[in-house]
Amino acid sequence: MKEFLLGLRLLFSAGRGNRIRFFLMAVGGSLGVCCLALVLTVPAILDAHDGRAAAREPQTSDKRAGATLVLERKDPHGSKPFTRVFIAKGGKGAHTPPPGLSELPEPGEVFVSPRVQDLLRAEPALRSLLPGKVRGVIGGPGLTDPDELYAYVGTTRAAIAADGDTGTLKSFGYDYAPTPVVDPSTLTNLRFALGTLVLLPLAVFLSVCARLSAASRTRRLASLRLLGLSTKGVQRVNAAETVAAAVLGALLGLCEYWILNQVMSRTGLPALRWYPSDGSLSWSTAAICLIGAPTLAWFVGRASARGAAAKPLAVRRTAAPKPPSKWGALVLVTGVGIVSGFCSTGLTRHPASSDGPFAALLAAGVLLTGVGLVLTLPLLTYHLARTVARTSRSLTLTLAMRRNEVEPGSAMRVVTGLVLLVFAASLAQGVLIEFKQVSKPNSPTQQYSIALSGVSEGQQHALTQVPEVRAHGLTMDSWSDPASDSIDGISVVVATCAQFAHLVVHSEGCVDGKVMRLVNLNSIPSPWVRPGASFPFHLRASGHKVSASVTVPSAAIRFTADDPSAIGGDDLLVPPSALPPGTRPDSAQLVLTSDSDPHVVREVLDGIGSAVPTVSVDPVGVNVDSLQQIAVIETLLVLGMIMGLVIGVAAFLVSVTDRAVERRAQVTAITLIGARARTLRAVQSTQVVLPLAIGLVLALVTGKLAESSYLVTGGGAVFWDFSGIPVLACAALGVAVIAAIGTLPLVGRRIDPELIRRD
Asked: How many whole angstroms separate alpha carbon 32 and alpha carbon 205?
């Protein structure tokens, strides 16, 4: 306790510079704790979302005699799901309202979410989906997020009793969400990715903040040791300052997170909104931040004081330090060996999977690779600097390499945050690729089927002009007598040859302006579709029905379609010019096609929703909820990247600035013997850029190995992400350039010879 009080006394009695350093340590630590709290709270935000979705889910049974009936409909409105719950109150059964409502709606009454209420003002056509009068707004406990599209519609029993999806309402609430915002298996991978993106750089950043002005503090601790303080006492004195700064930083960081949560919950992130209460700090998160940061600072403080306590004379006389330990290389080799082993299985017929113990082994391999990358940088920097300094004839290069040879550990503190950012970015690419493989169709194109009965001619034209839509066509069925038992009938595609070519994977033999048979090479044609057979179709012109017949020709088009596809089972291709002028099919589907990239699909769905808000869209083979999950995953990964970038840049700036301040005496001495400011700036940049370049190359190689091992064990079709290499390489090059430029202003222009004499 005496040593701890001595450390605090020295902290506030050692001058203004020491106090400024203390508060800088606290502010830097607060930034790290704020990011830590944000990472720890993300799962709680997702759990709160799923909890409210589970609490409002209707529990139903098959008994309908006089009971309350419920029917749920979920349709896409743009790229977002629009859920409508129809409730027909009965004399028996449950009458308890769902969360967010004070009572069940009566027939003709509608309760909507705030976002739907805003849409009704902007898009009056949406009222056709909500028959009745809007009586109130659903409260927060009944919505997963403030932007959700949700409505409760009161109706009569006769209106929904005949629907096969209607059930008898027992109560509201399940123990699990019907559609979680992020799938549990994907959430595990997301947590691992965020931990790699944020927590590894965060540990380095907090260590950097705990070792500000390490050289001057080490000399001061050596003086205390020479005055008779014990070895453990010296370590406790140093730990007192770092722990005090960490405690203050943790408190400031929690306050910063509270402010950040209030702002972000109201503004929201792309595809992710939450209520302020969802992101409130839990006791466990606060305890981890308030205990974890000081504990890390305690161990860092004791470790940094070990040299001054063991060999105080060597510190006071600036003896040459020992070479860095080689144990870090062993950690790196172990981690790379594990991930390389998983990668090698991708070259065999039976790649490894992430089931059972392999999941823990893969996670251990990735973490060992990241930690080994950090611990190996000083060793590589030391040997490279020593070799270059012996052979170089350049004054600039020799000065820079000799300094890195003397202080290889400082290189780790300066560049590690940026190096880990590149390593984690590669792993984040793998997580996103793996999730997209699971969530989106394998086809390179995406089709959208829209019922033409609810679309006017002007709206039909607007739908075909939606951005990113590559082609369009109509599909319609022949007319058949309802009283007949015959199943003979055909489906036709109304499109030109060019449009049809964009709607299928491959086609050959198409002739413009002619009706032609369609032969799908992957299916068996209908036996009644024979050349010469005629089939009637009903069309509509100016509100009147018009009949037309189509004769099956002998000429055929051979094609292959996507699986699934909206036109894979059609029998004929009819050019638009073959239809009578001024007519439209009485019953048909408008088919649009675009690229299958999730961003493009969301843009097309949003464009369809803007053109015709009330239209029902069937995105063939795609679940809108999956699109939402992809958007949430991308948002969280981008958030992790931003936090990792902030932490890495902050660690770099803090370390470079601290090194510049600590080396003022050496810079002054070199300046007094004739070195130019330009030479000193080049030396400073070289000292940083060389270890950074080594670290970035290692990060690119090991990051790609870690990413490939994750993709191989994920079981998807993509094992090797070669397309991501140029992006990471450009990012690494940009980091190196910015780091070089960022070191230039830190040499300083003021020359103070007194610095050479100061202790």
From this structure: 7
- Residue 731 near residue 425, CB atoms below 8 Å: yes
Phi/psi of residue 364, nearest 5 degrees = -65, -40
Q: Residue 332: exposed, middle, or buried by beta-carbon count in 10 A (0-12, 13-18, 19+)?
A: buried
- Exposed (0-12), middle (13-18) or buried (19+): which is 326, by Cβ within 10 Å? exposed
pTM of the model: 0.71
Sheet containing strand 544-551, edge to edge, reads 544-551, 534-541, 584-585
Q: Which amino acid belongs to residue 338?
A: I
**246 to each of 241, 300, 307, 400, how far by Cα in Å?**
9, 11, 22, 33
DSSP letters of 390-430?
HH---HHHHHHHHHHHH-HHHHHHHHHHHHHHHHHHHHHHH
Buried-state track 514-543, b at ≥16 Cβ within 10 A, e below 16? ebbbbebeeeeeeeebeeeeebebbbeeee
Question: To the nearest 10°, the Cα dihedral for 714, 720, 721, 722?
Answer: 180
Average pLDDT by stretches of 10, the chain with 759 residues: 60 62 76 82 86 87 74 77 85 77 88 90 79 88 88 85 76 81 71 72 71 61 67 68 81 90 82 85 88 79 61 55 72 86 80 72 82 81 79 75 69 71 77 64 76 79 86 82 62 86 85 84 74 80 75 84 77 82 79 82 79 74 69 78 76 70 66 68 75 83 83 70 75 77 61 52
Contact 58, 166 (CB under 8 A): no
Instruction: Give the 3-state secondary structure of residue 167.
Output: strand
Q: Reduced to 3 states, what is the DSSP secondary structure of residue 516?
A: strand
Separation CA 693–CA 691 (nearest Å): 5
Cα-based distances in Å from 343 to 331, 347, 705, 706: 19, 8, 7, 8
Cα distances from 513 to residues 78, 495, 645, in angstroms, run 35, 10, 58
Contact yes or no for 362/709 (Cβ under 8 A): yes
Comparing C-alpha atoms, which of 328, 385, 260 is closest to residue 642? 260
CA distance 105 to 98: 11
**Cα-flanking dihedrals φ and ψ of residue 427, to 5°?**
-65, -40
**Count of Cβ atoms closer than 10 Å to residue 376 Cβ:** 24
Decide if 406 contacts 322 (C-beta within 8 A).
no
437, exposed or middle or buried, with CB in 10 Å at 0-12, 13-18, 19+?
middle
* Three-class SS of 456-512: CHHHHHHHHCCCCCCEEEEEEECCCCCCCCCCCCCEEEECCHHHHHHHCCEEECCCC
CA distance 184 to 175: 15
As a whole number of angstroms, the distance between CA 167 and CA 118 comes to 30
Contact 198, 34 (CB under 8 A): no
Q: Estimate to the nearest angstrom the gap between the alpha carbon of 359 and the chain centroid.
A: 21
